[in-house]
Request: fold
Amino acid sequence: MKIPKELLERILARGPGIVAIDGRCGCGKSSLGQILAEELGASLFHMDDFYLPFARRRSNWREIPAGNMDLERFRREVLEPSLTGQPVLYRAYRCPEDRFLETEEIPWRPWAVVEGSYSQHPLLADAYRTKLFVTADPAVQEQRLRRREGEHFSAFRETWIPMEEHYFRAFAIERSADAVLLTDREPIGVLMRE
Reply:
């Protein structure tokens, strides 16, 4: 995956800050985040590290847009320090094990990249300099997820994809992004918004 030149120029023109990459599962958010962080010399943060522990989830969490995410902790532990020039005390949560990892100190950098579903939730969106939305043709998305998830693909089809789509619709995430990236083609297609 290569970041289109016009997109990188647009991000750089906006100046240092936090870039958020949201979008559909299996469409390249993590890959794009890694590449963009390297290009910018940025810290990289993953929304997958901020799931809510099971004991703190509401009984109807699957029906709530981002009901499985600890957005308040993400804002407090990552966004606020990043916006004020402070190091981030990063405490990743591992959902399969239902436990937190040791706290890691991430030095402040002028640029930060946040990648992952739910990263542009309204509780977080005001912190970002640039918001990107990553998508692909549904058939390509399914093919990628089947390859990546193997026997766990049905959980994506039955739970995770519907939850993401509910969130995207509830908060108009794709429409509010500064650019939409179509990753089912090479080079990546980019729809810029003013």
